[in-house]
């Protein structure tokens, strides 16, 4: 299991790693563990040992602790392991040491400015190399809030690849704008130029890069940040074959879009 | 030979680990996180309402019928029922909201909290739509959407998505669908409480049983038992922990709930953050 350390323009990221499982019945780890930072240069996953922590201990890592070259893609992934890692890897390691089922082993990732911070409970599994993203974005905030749409993507393959991200008006199904997002990165799209209001629900679609989508709000006037991810469409349903329902939902939507 | 033997041993060890996990899983989780509701139910989380003196609560209502079922051409006026609950899980009132043709409608939940709804501490949202197609395939439409919380009159909201599938609705009847087990288990919040800050925790009970929850705090290398919380079915409870500057704490909850996961509000002098534990 990996944990994201993100950076978005002018906003530093942090990750609070806590060496405690979410429950007392699945997994007991009693040995000191190594924390590695991994980032891609487009050819290899590079790794560096950040330190070691004992069970019950906490380690805060921030994007400011990282050299600029580590944060080139806006994303470093943190990896707790008992193994030694080579400094260059052709794919991400598959052993999951901090891992549990109920609930998933998570940590706190987010952004901060001075004493102000916003976070979500994070965990990161490598996404398929050829997936798609389709999400409805409900987090537009009015007034003096700067609204950003953030994606993070991690694949086992260290290559950095681009694809179009279509911003779509849900009522007309027409494209409002096309931006670019990349694999193995944190990407930031500013939303305030599009004139969305708090009752708008823009749709974001990327044909070949699956990502975790977030809404990030920042108000320098109120000295506040806000961060939350949207659900994948499968989460609109409970029980049954949710993946099939998600595929059908995405297919219906994609067929109805006017991507010209 | 050596290598072959080692590979075989690794395989055997993995199988043993898998079997141990399955036994433990059966022991602790054999009923699954949520029960399958009846017939043509729709499902909702139990969304917390923090104290109205300090917080304004919003809900970003999506037109799930259109978005999830792909009923793009439907011209029917859609509505949802908002069920409000008090801390004991009793229904304080029901309100109907029409979605018109909006894909999304922002509802200011705090505006409803007058008269008989004043004591409400949580709410659920049930979409009034035809989900027969889903139900026939063993699935249910689930509202686990997005609450926005503004602190002390600030305009900006902190958002958090639904936390637990809690309540099913069918033909005017509601039923809790969360499960609990026979054995107590710990839910450890994987977030260090770092001061100076006030942490507000809101716990909800998605089951049809009264649940006892014991909270433990980790201070100076020790877990200490703090308080006992008793939650009625669909009840909720909120409490505050103050963490001083340079202090660090951890928190865990011991109960029979399969997933005793709180919604957490972190407030310090200059800001606030909201997330699920």
Structure description:
The complex is a heterodimer of chains A (260) and B (277). Chain A is built from 1 helix and 18 strands. Chain A is mainly beta and 260 residues long. Chain A folds into 2 domains: 3-122, no CATH class; 133-256, Hypothetical Protein Tm1070, Chain: A (Sandwich), CATH 2.60.290. The model of chain A has no long low-confidence stretch (mean pLDDT 94). With 277 residues, chain B is mainly beta. Chain B folds into 2 domains: 42-176; 180-276, TM1070-like (Hypothetical Protein Tm1070, Chain: A, Sandwich). Helices cover 14% and strands 48% of the residues of chain B. The interface between A and B is large, with 69 and 65 residues. β18 of chain A pairs antiparallel with β8 (140-143) of chain B, so a sheet runs across the interface.
Q: Which features characterize this protein?
A:
heterodimer, A: 260 residues, mainly beta, Hypothetical Protein Tm1070, Chain: A, 2 domains, five-stranded antiparallel sheet, four-stranded antiparallel sheet, 1 helix, globular, B: 277 residues, four-stranded mixed sheet, 21 strands
């Amino acid at each position: 299991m990996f944990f994201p350390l993100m950076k978005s323009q002018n906003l530093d990221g942090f990750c609070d790693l806590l060496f405690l499982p979410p429950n007392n019945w699945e997994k007991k780890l009693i040995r000191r563990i190594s924390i590695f930072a991994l980032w891609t240069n487009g050819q290899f996953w590079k790794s560096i040992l950040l330190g070691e922590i004992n069970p019950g201990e906490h380690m805060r890592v921030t994007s400011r602790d990282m050299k600029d070259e580590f944060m080139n893609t806006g994303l470093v992934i943190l990896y707790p392991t008992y193994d030694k890692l080579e400094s260059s890897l052709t794919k991400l390691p598959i052993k999951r040491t901090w891992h549990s089922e109920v609930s998933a082993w998570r940590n706190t990732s987010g952004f901060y400015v001075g004493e102000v911070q916003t976070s979500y409970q994070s965990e990161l599994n490598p996404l398929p190399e050829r997936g798609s993203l389709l999400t409805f974005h409900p987090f537009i905030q009015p007034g003096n809030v700067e609204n950003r749409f953030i994606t993070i993507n991690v694949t086992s393959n260290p290559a950095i690849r681009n694809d179009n991200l279509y911003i779509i008006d849900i009522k007309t199904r027409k494209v409002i704008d096309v931006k670019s997002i990349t694999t193995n990165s944190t990407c930031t799209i500013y939303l305030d130029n599009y004139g969305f209001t708090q009752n708008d629900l823009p749709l974001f679609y990327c044909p070949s890069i699956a990502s975790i989508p977030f809404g990030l709000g920042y108000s320098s006037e109120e000295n506040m940040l806000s961060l939350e991810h949207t659900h994948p469409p499968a989460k609109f349903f409970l029980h049954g074959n949710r993946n099939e329902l998600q595929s059908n939902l995405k297919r219906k939507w994609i067929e109805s879009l006017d991507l010209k | 030979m050596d290598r072959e033997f080692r590979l075989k041993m690794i395989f055997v060890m993995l199988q043993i680990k898998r079997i141990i996990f399955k036994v433990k899983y059966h022991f602790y989780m054999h009923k699954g996180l949520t029960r399958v509701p009846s017939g043509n139910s729709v499902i909702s989380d139990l969304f917390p309402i923090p104290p109205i003196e300090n917080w304004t609560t919003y809900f970003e209502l999506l037109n799930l019928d259109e978005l999830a079922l792909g009923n793009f051409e439907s011209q029917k006026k859609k509505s949802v029922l908002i069920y409000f609950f008090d801390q004991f899980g009793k229904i304080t009132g029901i309100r109907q909201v029409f979605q018109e043709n909006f894909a999304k409608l922002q509802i200011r939940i705090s505006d409803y909290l007058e008269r008989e709804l004043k004591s409400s501490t949580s709410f659920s949202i049930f979409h009034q739509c035809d989900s027969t197609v889903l139900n026939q395939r063993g699935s249910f439409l689930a509202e686990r959407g997005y609450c926005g919380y503004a602190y002390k009159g600030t305009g900006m909201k902190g958002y958090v998505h639904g936390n637990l599938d809690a309540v099913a609705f069918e033909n005017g009847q509601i039923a809790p669908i969360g499960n609990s087990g026979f054995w107590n288990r710990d839910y450890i919040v994987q977030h260090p409480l770092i001061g100076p800050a006030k942490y507000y925790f809101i716990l909800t009970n998605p089951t049809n049983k009264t649940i006892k929850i014991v909270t433990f705090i980790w201070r100076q290398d020790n877990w200490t038992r703090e308080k006992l919380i008793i939650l009625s079915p669909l009840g909720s409870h909120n409490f505050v922990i103050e963490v001083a500057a340079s202090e660090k704490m951890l928190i865990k909850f011991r109960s029979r709930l399969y997933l005793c996961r709180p919604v957490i509000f972190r407030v310090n002098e200059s800001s606030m953050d909201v997330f699920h534990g």
